[in-house]
User: Fold these one by one.
Assistant:
Number 1:
Amino acid sequence: MDAKLSTAFWALLKRDLRLAYRHRNELLNPLFFFVLVVMLFPLGTSPEKELLMTMAPGVIWVAALLASMLSLDTLFRADFEDGTLEQITLSPHPLSVLVLAKIIAHWLVTGFPMILLAPLLAVFMYLPDEGIGVLMLTLAIGTPILSLIGAIGMGLTVGLRRGGMLLSLIVLPLYIPVLIFSANAVNTYLADLAIRGQIYFLMAVLVLAITLAPIATAAALRISLE
Amino acid sequence: MSISEFFHMGGYAVYVWSSYGLAFVVMLAIFIKPVLTRKQIIRELRMKYRQQERQQQDNAQAEN
Amino acid sequence: MKLPAIVHKFSSPRNFYVMSGKLIPWFAWPCLILLVAGLYYGLIEAPADYQQGESYRIIFIHVPSAWMSMMIYMVMAIAGAIGLIWRIKMADIVASASAPIGAAFTFLALVTGSLWGKPMWGAWWVWDARLTSELILLFLYLGFIALQASIEDPRNAARAGAVLALVGVVNIPIIHYSVEWWSTLHQGATITKLDKPSIHISMLIPLLLMAVAFKLYYAASVLMRARSELLKREQNARWVREIVANES
């Protein structure tokens, strides 16, 4: 990264964080949604400890998937509408790196708080205490993947008037591997088995997503801006 | 093997024949649809071209 | 990277239209012959399976459909990439014409899998690896179709679809692997007899006949779709006028 590109990268990251801080009320919505979805499951099934305990990792992860998908709207929408995004694409720096800065900023304000909320949800779902650490670890590796994959879908649909439903149709199938391995890692850990395989898999997907998703997102944004 | 045995499919007639029937219907529909759309497009284009020609003739007459 | 000029010449809309018109019968008739042969060997010649009885005959539809559903997605992504990189209009049209056919085969694979599963598993749906993957693949197709349908400009729709198809191609092996891993984990020894390791030659012949017939069917129908789409998109070109005039 040459000097100028890194300046642009940090400037964009800081700008997005500052903007997010100014609209901090909006940032709470996906978090409330996250808690709300988890809360619905005991109400929809039964408050039995045994049942909720077995469902806990899956339910919390499904809720994380949905919450992070809903939060994607704040990733590009405002910048698309006021023309900032077009300005960014006109800059001499590679768009994929700038997009990565935006995704990281977005994850810091949406994905990261979800990790911090996880212990609360674990208590709601009677997840045993020793599982909380692994749950937070999978969220720490998994939510950046969700943000990165989601950014592609958001890039493709940002210019469309009714992009919301379409976004879920595009993005949720791509989220499935993260869901499978993350929820399973927690369950496996609670069964006193090794979870190194699952964690390695998630890390490999994260590395793949960091390298490829910004490029795909940049291509998608250029198409949407045309 | 007799014909009734063939249609009976060892008791699995419902499953086997509905699979083959559905595959037949879906594949036929996929195959026929472009034939119909092609006909429709040609019909529409012919009307469009005729209209364009008429307009051109009208314009030419108006100029004369 | 530049493509040789002949590729551009061949893929010009007019040449494509003429060439594909000549090619379609060469795909369609062999397809019909192979279908009849495959049905004959599959339904009449092949003996009943010693475990599954006659119900296994569904695999002659199910397995080729599942193969086609994967293959067509690959074709779609490759055509989309060609359209994206070299801006060849025909590749875009082939990609979007493939999607409904691929979705139809995915749907067939799912329904026939379910119809086969009912007598075998005693349930219409089992979360078996193949069926689950097919279900996810169906949603990938539906996402592609919905995305293209919601973008009005055909060029932009094609490019957006191509990006999504390429993302899907990178993801499909990952999804497939995860689902397989997940299903073996939760079900241990499920009966996945649909893909038996040792398949008898009398069953292999109709299976391969049907598989080739399905591929030819896809080739013929994708060209037919592309041709009618082409007429619509190129309606202002003179060659389209000539074709419309000559059509009785």
Number 2:
Amino acid sequence: MKTYVLVAILACFWMINSGYLKPLLLGAGVLSIITVLALTSFMNRKDGEAFPIVLLSRRLPGYLGWLVWQIVLANIDVVKRVWLGPASISPVVFRTHASQSSEAAKVLYANSITMTPGTVTLFVRDDVFEVHALTKEGAAEVQKGEMDRRVSALETV
Amino acid sequence: MSLFIDIISWACILCGGFLGVTGAIGLFRFPDFYTRLHAASITDTLCAGLIILGLILQAGFTLMSLKLLMLLGIFAYTAPTASHILAKTAFKCGLKPVLYDQKGGGS
């Protein structure tokens, strides 16, 4: 099943980037896909991370939409502080608890924190993240744990 | 209709440009490495996103807009990875962040 999805993704990737329907180029595409499949099956013997979409959940699109909205809000806040100057910031380093059980979900949570302007994940130790935040308010926002809950909810379905 | 799309598209591109300039100014204004990283993440996320959205509207429903969309996806994967690696490496090499408490509560 995963192999078919991977072939479909790779074929889309090739067609978007090439856009040509000449037999020679299509043949090159097929050859590339076969090579990548061989490489991923080889990588799968080392670990199970060769498949690009590890976290398949029906709540994922909803989460991504919410994340984009959070990124927009955080951008507005950081832009405001850039123009107000360094007096308006209050940098803090704090620890926060990650309640996800799978590695993929933890990676998604850590990356979501980093992607939101104003917070960067420094370290991940088991289920504790060390985060640097531009402002105390931004730190409090992460510690409220709404993003943590939403990422954890992706694991259940 | 095409005028309407042009207006939205240019609004996106101009907003993105403004955010890019803001990110650059923040890069100079903020006091230390970690806070500057936050300013740079404006450029990574909404600035790039708005410019690409504006360009997609300009391109219309073509292969080019799909390529631009893919670019956005690549940004979403690489930008946080790069930020995280930079911050982690700086921290591990002993670069101490300037914290709010150390500044004596403000200014």
